């Protein structure tokens, strides 16, 4: 008779969690170069050390959010679930296989109520400065592109408002560049879209505003379905290092967000900008 493998799921084992995480795992690389002392110093004034319940390590809470963004997990709730069953995530937090993971509501509260609003920006700039100081960033050419992120808003719940028109500063030149590339590929040219936001400064135009999430915007592009969304305008170098991000409503034109991203990044580096769309270089 065949000797089938026995069920070992209920056996008690002594496990070295360090040995369970692959040597080339991304989180190992991050942990190797990260310095958290400055974070503890920054957040120390926001904790009381003389009374109350013992607080959860603030760096652990920040690491949970970092895991969410590094691995594209859609929510903190799901991040909490993933960390519970992922050995590498537990190792990154400094937790054993049996340690209780901080609840996602604790993480949300910390970032909404306890931590200063500018914390995320300070963490980003600290890491970026370390990369620049170690000559890991290539400032030769910077690429910028916008990514639409669907908002958690019912597209049937909205109201119409009259707002001032916003100038699409570089739209015509950008459209010409894009259409030239599309022509090389045998694609139809992109026509001017007057649906959202207007096309000239001055005057007013009608805008669709979500009653669920007023900060987002109605996104319409080509044959895509209309939906409420945000747009992350991201600048990065040729190695993929993110140098600056500006998040706007989904109906804000790229040229409107351009100046903010440009000013932020050029404030740190002497760079030449290139859009991801068609090698477009603004004046």
Question: What does this entry look like structurally?
Answer:
The protein is of the alpha+beta class and about 280 residues long. It is about 35% helix and about 15% strand. The strands form two sheets. Strands 1, 4, 5, 6 and 7 form a five-stranded mixed sheet that branches. A two-stranded antiparallel sheet has the order 2-3. It starts with 16 loop residues before the first helix and ends in an 8-residue tail after the last strand.
In short:
By secondary structure, this protein is α+β, with helices and mostly antiparallel strands. It has helices at about 15-20, 25-35, 35-45, 60-70, 75-85, 85-95, 105-115, 120-135, 170-185, 255-265, and strands at about 140-150, 160-165, 205-210, 215-220, 225-235, 240-250, 275.
Q: Notable features of this structure?
A:
alpha+beta, two-stranded antiparallel ribbon, 283 residues, single chain, 5-stranded mixed β-sheet, 7 strands
Query: Tally the helices: what do you get?
Result: 10
Number of strands: 7
Radius of gyration based on Cα positions: 24 Å
Distance between the termini: 79 Å
Shape: globular
Q: How much β-strand is present in the residues?
A: 15-25%
Stretches with pLDDT under 50, minimum 5 residues: 194-201, 277-283
Helix content: 25-40%
* Main sheet summary: 5 strands, mixed
Helix and strand run: HHHHHHHHEEHEEEEHE
Structural class: alpha+beta
Mean pLDDT level: 82
